[in-house]
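U., I forgot to send this yesterday:
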Amino acid sequence: MLYHLYELNHAMIAPMRAFAKWGEAALTDKSNPFAETLWAKNTVAAFDLFESLTRRYGKPAFGLDTTEIAGREVGVTEKVVWEKPFCQLLHFERDLSGFSNRRKDPTLLIVAPLSGHYATLLRGTVEALLPTHNIYITDWTDARTVPLSEGGFALDDYISYLIEIAHFLGPAFHTLAVCQPSVPVLAAAGIMAAEKDPNRPLSMTLMGGPIDTRIAPTEVNELATKRGIEWFERNVIMTVPFPNPGAFRRVYPGFLQLGGFMAMNLDRHVSAHKDYFNHLVEGDGDNAAKHREFYDEYLSVMDMEADYYLQTVERVFCDHHLPRGLFTYKDALVDLSAIDDIALMTVEGEKDDISGVGQTRAAHTLCTALPDTKRMHWEQPGVGHYGVFNGSRWRKEIAPKITKFIKANEKR
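Result:
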């Protein structure tokens, strides 16, 4: 019922949003003699703020049309090369026609988190690695757009997708997982290693992931263990309303997730929007544009299939199956001790309040057969969860270390 009320509320506000956009256009028109008055500027700022806060944000674009290689700008084409109902695999194809003698760059699969935001949240991650890697990324689908006829999607399906993508990419690729996918990526590596699958990755880099949330538990971790899986099923799982393509599918709605994200740092978001209002009144276009750029991404959320979400909460955050040796795939135990030739790098942020320090590093403890020569851990000083994969320290300090690690492990 709450999902239906949310949709109804959005429809009812639509005329008010239209009026706000009309009012903003009228008050900023050059022919309006009151356009430069303080009253008009305040009103325009209020209209803009109202419109941005009540808008439904669609899926953003990566917008990575070029990259720089060896001091030269080259074109980049984004292509869908593999597809399933709940995921597309995107390839950022670089135009390397002018580099006849260039050494072949390593192929890198970036596994984006399926935890509320779109894969474009990793735009900065892709951008920093694009000059030196042949990049593919998982682009997960909003569950509200997937018809019931396409079937369900659970944690086992997620792992199956990763294994299928590995077979599509072939035997010489590396993988990088940001946050939530660290668990299924590690599990998939264990499954493929146990089967001596020739298409298993050469290396895996796990960044800010919840491998063992018993270590340095954060507020997010404690919420899961305190509430229990039954609470989540009763309170956050809803049915997609008609006429969405995924009507009647059980999901964890994006708008509920966004409410949780905002509540964690509500004072910071309120302050940011106050500053945005003042920037608009003062005509500070640069800072206003930075605010819009961040929130256009942050407020773009997607629904998650209920089975996948509930299984992740239960098996990863409540019952800690992976570190306890209880994690299964298609009812068979996953043996991480089988990983003996897939190089492992873990990356954590000193101030991460989502995945506590030590939670990702725990992967090294679980991969008991991996030699020390194929291990690396890096804790980045002064960054939180987002800073592990985005921002200046990511570009200048973390990304170069990952690139070096990958190139050191291009052969088994």
